[in-house]
Amino acid sequence: MNRYSAFVTIIETGSFTKAAEQLGYTQSAISQIVRSLEQELSTNLLLRSRKGIALTADGEQLLPYIKNLHHSYCELMEKRKEMQGLQSGIIRIGTFTSVSCHWLPKLMKDFKEQYPSVKFELHQGEYTSIAQWVKEGSVDFGFVNPDAVSGLTTISLRQDEMLAILPNNHPLASNEKVSLEELSHEPFILLNEGERSEPLEIFKQHNLHPNIQYRVIDDYTIMSMIENELGISILPKLVLNRTNYNIITKEISQPIVRTIGIAFKNKTTLPIASRYFIDFLVGEFVK
Fold first, then answer.
1. Model confidence pLDDT, tens digit, residues 80-139
2. What residue ranges in the chain does DSSP mark as E strands?
3. Which domain holds residue 43?
4. Looking at residue 131, which CATH number applies to its domain?
5. Alpha-carbon dihedral angle through residues 111, 113, 116, 121, given to the nearest 10 degrees
6. Are residues 28 and 119 in the same domain?
7. How far apart are CA 25 and CA 240, in angstroms?
8. Helix 272-285 with 104-114: angle, nearest 10 deg
9. Beta bridge partners of 257
10. In this structure, what DSSP letter does residue 232 have?
């Protein structure tokens, strides 16, 4: 027990006996704590009588400083508990392919340099399933398009352009850009992102109806299908980093941009490790 904290407890209870009971010490141990503190400060702090205890003149002057040390000690212990919880915590995240492949590994590495004992648990899905996992508590938070979820707190992190993906020998491959109308006539492979699809939203805004031939949940499967000339697609630029498929990417004349963010229910009730990681993400992306 910190001596300053014990002394403050004695003052607050007005009794060595009551302070000893509250702190789980014997009365003689409490008396020894006071003597030790008085020796440290080279003065008498308390007067004891039949009526109880009273501060000496020096004790009156030193009490505010002792209280400050007591409160600082309490804050230190609380922070230590937090850090212990953080160091042993598990961060459960709902995510989709482009984020889990191209953002999360580096972010997790940087975070673990500060908190090496933290563990990560990743759940792969799409906007709708991730939002549902957050709501039911299967994950602490999830990466989503904030426009695709409701009933959750969201923070936007970054915008990501979406590009047209064509087979290498496709007739549109020589165009500088491709239009939505041109894409709507081709066999279309739709990336299944749940209840909301950015490409379908932009097609709808332009009164166009893509020729959907396949619905696929994995970006890399779509790229392999395009490489084998099964159709064309629209995919986020983020997932196209460091790919070696024999495909062509083209900007779309009517730009499609998706927002990537995170969603959670109530940050204050999240495990401390997840709260820290959310703050870390915001610090990385929200400048």
1. 777 776 767 889 999 998 898 889 999 999 999 988 888 999 999 988 899 999 998 889
2. 46-49, 52-55, 90-95, 119-124, 141-144, 153-167, 177-178, 187-191, 211-216, 233-236, 247-252, 256-264
3. 3-85
4. 3.40.190.290
5. 30
6. no
7. 65
8. 120
9. 161
10. B
